[in-house]
Amino acid sequence: MEKPKKDPIYKSFGYAFEGIFAVIKKERNMKIHCCMMILVIAAGIFFQISVIKWCLCFSLFGLIMALEMVNTAVEAVVDLVTEERRPLAKLAKDAAAGAVLIASIMAAVAGVMIFVPEFLRFADQIFI
After folding, report:
1. 3 in a structural domain
2. Is 8 helix (H, G, I), strand (E, B) or coil?
3. Taxonomically, which superkingdom (predicted)?
4. Residue 26 sits in a domain of what CATH number?
5. 35-83: pLDDT as tens digits
6. Number of folded domains that form the chain
7. Which of 2, 18, 27, 68 is labelled catalytic?
8. Is 68 an active-site residue?
């Protein structure tokens, strides 16, 4: 039996980008994550944060956005499988949403740890 032919790599990337743009367009929370990312990038540029801090910020952006996409995929699959209210369906959806929430809270804590000292240094320069 012959293996089915795989799509060329550029098509695989195309499908991935379609998924990213679909989630950004469809999901309110992904729009919020994108807005927060833009604000953090602007703050990072303004405060001229270090390369290490940039790496941490971009890693957290990727983690949160990837988890939001997995959450969307879990919700879509659960909705595809059943329209009934079932305990396992609820658990799957709630657990996926909880993963995004935990990552977002930890990213916010890291953001405070990165940007509060930068803000305080900036305030010292202005008010002294």
Report:
1. no
2. coil
3. Bacteria
4. 1.10.287.3610
5. 999 999 999 999 999 999 999 999 999 999 999 999 999 999 999 999 8
6. 1
7. 68
8. yes
